[in-house]
Description:
Blueprint: E1 5-6, E2 10-18, E3 22-29, E4 35-41, H1 49-63, E5 73-79, E6 82-88, E7 92-94, H2 95-102, H3 107-126, E8 129-130, E9 139-142, E10 147-149, E11 156-157, H4 165-168, H5 178-182, H6 188-204, H7 214-223, H8 238-247, H9 259-271, H10 283-295, H11 297-327, H12 331-338, E12 340-342, H13 351-360, E13 364-370, E14 380-383, E15 390-392, E16 396-402, E17 407-409, H14 418-427, E18 431-438, E19 447-451, E20 457-459, E21 463-469, E22 471-473, H15 482-491, E23 497-503, E24 513-517, E25 523-525, E26 530-536, H16 548-552
Amino acid sequence: xxxxxxxxxxxxxxxxxxxxxxxxxxxxxxxxxxxxxxxxxxxxxxxxxxxxxxxxxxxxxxxxxxxxxxxxxxxxxxxxxxxxxxxxxxxxxxxxxxxxxxxxxxxxxxxxxxxxxxxxxxxxxxxxxxxxxxxxxxxxxxxxxxxxxxxxxxxxxxxxxxxxxxxxxxxxxxxxxxxxxxxxxxxxxxxxxxxxxxxxxxxxxxxxxxxxxxxxxxxxxxxxxxxxxxxxxxxxxxxxxxxxxxxxxxxxxxxxxxxxxxxxxxxxxxxxxxxxxxxxxxxxxxxxxxxxxxxxxxxxxxxxxxxxxxxxxxxxxxxxxxxxxxxxxxxxxxxxxxxxxxxxxxxxxxxxxxxxxxxxxxxxxxxxxxxxxxxxxxxxxxxxxxxxxxxxxxxxxxxxxxxxxxxxxxxxxxxxxxxxxxxxxxxxxxxxxxxxxxxxxxxxxxxxxxxxxxxxxxxxxxxxxxxxxxxxxxxxxxxxxxxxxxxxxxxxxxxxxxxxxxxxxxxxxxxxxxxxxxxxxxxxxxxxxxxxxxxxxxxxxxxxxxxxxxxxx
Length: 553
């Protein structure tokens, strides 16, 4: 196949991989000179209707999308019996390779990668595409840290016919959602579950479920609770662990409402690692819950008054019981009784009152804000524990507070420094993700572009992708001592410094910088490596002789 030219344009240069249905080649686009990747359906599948349908689905899914974090489709065709797709060529490694090399990833790195995967999935879901095979092998990362989701080969266009039985088990079983394992229809919530599994593996270095056979692994996805990540690896924050476990809920209704919602939760977990972030339910479920609970509000209030009378009797009974328990040495039993409380009825309360009522019950009230056009801003729409649910003092109860209308105007971010732009966007419920740092004459960290544009009316949980200036002017290091040069590098934003030593007989030059790359005054990206040539004595020592200035002192 090497050397073959498709459509008089794409010349195959190098075989770079294979999948279940296709061979992948690096190719040259003869019109532009750019590298592209060409996916060629294996000839033995040309008469296999199932694989032909998968190949057509991948082309259809890819044609609906164009996104920074998706390996985008460039062309599609058939020639001499070969069906092929032309896609972006990305030199890099899979996320699976990186996890296997590192063992596990730092939490901030895992969070940023997950946000980019979710950004890609939100775009796909907005276009009616469900990936169905999210796994680290299908996430590509290049040397600059750009993350792209690949292989929509078993994706489903929402609303299309149900896939064949064979397709239902085509994804990787370690990353299956419970509904995939059961063979049920899948939705965008299935992709969110798989992202939760990928995060679990990034944070711990292990998949949550493993076994000798695919069937045994699938059964665990259906019924076995995952071991909390913090029990496998140290240093995982409670908030990030809660994000992972929420995404991996067995009931898809308990997972995040959409990919953007999960990205917001990850961002919140990175900013507040000790605050647990609970899953939000779908808006339709929220509205139905609010409607049902509103219908019983009056009845609940009457019950609350009767409950207060019961509480007085219960306090007396509990007191007697505590004394009896203490008499028989049951200190632990008494402690449990005194620690008991119940979930109050908070729906319809304003946020401040809900927090006060929850605190009076000895509970910690966590607030999750979500847009809802039918509930006034600042009013509780839903609570995580139903009224009178038995709880312990000190436990968390989550209230979902309306932020008003679902859509907000995107603020102007270009020209602002990233920190202030992010603060402005988050006031309106948006999540900011840096997609690229580029060379620019603007100050370091200045927002250069944004997507969506300022003024667009967007969902409050929408991810805003920004490109920021990442360039710095290289200072002069020549003639400085090694220590002075390293200090100057850190102070000017260069953290990657390589020292190359050169022997010299001139004792006055020892430990001084002889040369530097890049040169003084060049403008480079902030993560550029600085190479310094430093003089040492012939025996490798960097000790210097006292200077005239030091002698004088």
